[in-house]
């Protein structure tokens, strides 16, 4: 019986438990529902939780531990010469055994007969069933695979039995525990609280896990390349070594990438901030409710477009357009139709990324501007200020800290953006100031270093983690600072 | 203004009251919020250098009427006003009138103190700055000081003009708002329950201030407190369910009102 069937069984028992619990609570209540501490649904929930939760925990525990227990038992009975081989080789052997075991389940009894006699035909037989083997199996493997299958089957049956027993046991226990005085509501809510807590700690733990794993790989990198060469190096030239050759002659200077990141982000903000801010002011202060209801969602659709689509737009439309128009301009000025803007350039990437950021700037700022109390607007208008004077002199100054926070958050998005840059600014790591030339960013190089044949021991690959952790630290600082400012600004009105 | 003795104030007022010109007058004023009519054919005159109190139960349209007097209703999308309101001889709902200029002539103080999140100095200088009433720093200083003097706040804040206005106490904030309104030298000042957020002592100060401001300004005040209306106003208008029920001298209104509803309302409040 497979895991999912067991799961369904347990859930079915859970539903029955819910109904029984409710029924019993109703029966106990008699004519007056207020005899009960909680409403009958809570008793139902209480019984259902007892019926499912322990069984599910058991299932989870079992399916995590059983495979390794079985594996160690099977490997224990390996012949001595295999046991003497290095660990990696043993792993390969065991991998083959699991494949054989999987294939053997697909064979008809007649096939199995022939198999038992002749180990050499196993490979052809199994590949006919769609289970390819890496090499010819050794004779000892067949019985081992058989054993593996047997153990797995037994474990599955045991698990099913144990889970169903646990479910039924929980059900009976909880049913008997139901009394009018039982605080079922409080208990059910405690379980709900636990679930909520669990969900939020998963997010936090994952973050910690990600950071830890990145840190681990990054320290590995820094053991091969000195930190100052990474952080202060001005040349990025990792020289891809072929896998296994172990060459580490590359130069891993962060500065050109960081410069590209900040430059492109800066150009993007140059486009996004004024446009986003103006549109936020229009939406918050001038637009009639009708226009607002229509235009605001439209603007926010922009935020839902995948960034790769912006990348296409940059690659096929904006880049060529800028290149051609620059050729026209230089033609008019100098008579020589040479384009001074490359199709892939800082300005292309910055412009398109700016468009991507507009909805973030505008919707964040819009929220902040509308949060400025109406009393301040009225106060200013009541003194005879016009709307635009009110916006300029009262609303924007009042909202400024919040807007700065919003802009910092937007900036951290710009720093983390990848796809647009790959397509619009190119992959050349260069240090220069001309916005019409290509440059590249930290994110692009991370992708670069992690595509293709990987070997997680060479600095060429590991540098990606060092880059990643640098980027992470950068955006984290931006976000924390932004949150700090936004929070401080909120207190102003509370 | 503080320099004037009490009798001098009375004398000035006496003279102005006798030829008590009409400062503002509303004729057949109706106000709608969308489909709903909030005011029905209100005819009310506001006399110059007089404090006019608007009273009535909650939701009767006092604030609505007050806001029609400087067109603050324009800021509410669904609001529509019909009828005629004159300021001196200008129809303020004439399409040719400049709302900004109107609001400079008819200032407003709100129920909740709403100082801008700027320094005390900048709060006062705000109006003069946008209306170009002063050029040099000295001129601004002069306006700031005299406005704060008039609002009776100068002595309390003269050493902390650069501190934020939001850092003052509630009563001080409200007087700051009054000073801010006074700074643009309006002709009329509208006050919507200016003391409802204040304690009795701060209230007494604001009332005293209203009393003094009357020499230079025409004041319309909405209040829920009968005592306050009796203390500060010379004329009182009673609203009920969107209708103007009675308009009379305050003394007469509180001793011997013409209308039964006024009587009930006042008695209800007192007893
Ligand atoms: N912005 C608005 N939109 C729709 N209806 C409104 C609006 N403002 C006021 N009203 C309605 O107009 C009527 C009069 O309101 P108004 O605020 O003038 O009453 P009020 O006399 O000032 O009451 P209070 O003493 O409680 O301040 C009320 O019925 C109110 O519901
Ligand atoms: Mg009101």
Keywords:
A: mainly alpha, 2 domains, flat, B: 271 residues, alpha/beta, four-stranded antiparallel β-sheet, binds adenosine-5'-triphosphate, binds magnesium ion
Question: What does it look like?
Answer:
The complex is a heterodimer of chains A (494) and B (271). In chain A, 76% of the residues lie in helices and 1% in strands. Chain A is mostly helical and 494 residues long. Chain A has a two-stranded antiparallel ribbon. The longest helix of chain A is centred in the middle third of the chain and has 41 residues, at 184-224. By secondary structure, chain B is α/β, with parallel strands linked by helices. Chain B has a domain at 21-114 and 186-266: P-loop containing nucleotide triphosphate hydrolases (Rossmann fold, 3-Layer(aba) Sandwich), CATH 3.40.50.300. The mean pLDDT of chain B is 87. Chain A binds chain B through residues 288-289, 373, 375-386, 389, 393-394, 397-398, 492, and chain B through 70, 72, 75, 77, 100-104, 107-108, 110, 112, 114-118, 126-127, 130-131, 166, 177, 180-181, 184. Adenosine-5'-triphosphate binds at residues 33, 38, 56, 58-64, 76, 78 of chain B.
What is the compact description of this entry?
The complex is a heterodimer of chains A (494) and B (271). Chain A is mainly alpha-helical.
Helices and strands in order, then pairings?
The complex is a heterodimer of chains A (494) and B (271).
Chain A: H1 3-29, H2 40-76, H3 80-84, H4 87-106, H5 109-117, H6 122-128, H7 141-177, H8 184-224, H9 227-232, E1 236-237, E2 251-252, H10 255-286, H11 289-304, H12 307-334, H13 346-370, H14 374-382, H15 387-416, H16 419-425, H17 442-449, H18 459-491
Antiparallel strand pairs in A: 1-2
Helix pairs in contact in A: 1-2, 1-7, 2-7, 2-8, 4-7, 8-18, 10-13, 10-15, 11-13, 12-13, 12-16, 13-15, 13-16, 14-15, 15-18, 17-18
Chain B: H1 6-18, E1 22-33, E2 36-47, E3 51-55, H2 62-68, E4 79-87, E5 90-91, H3 99-105, E6 106-109, H4 120-131, H5 137-150, H6 154-157, H7 170-183, E7 188-192, H8 200-213, E8 218-222, H9 226-232, E9 235-240, E10 243-249, H10 250-255, H11 260-270
Parallel strand pairs in B: 3-8, 3-9, 6-7, 7-8
Antiparallel strand pairs in B: 1-2, 1-4, 4-5, 9-10
The structure holds adenosine-5'-triphosphate (ATP) and magnesium ion.
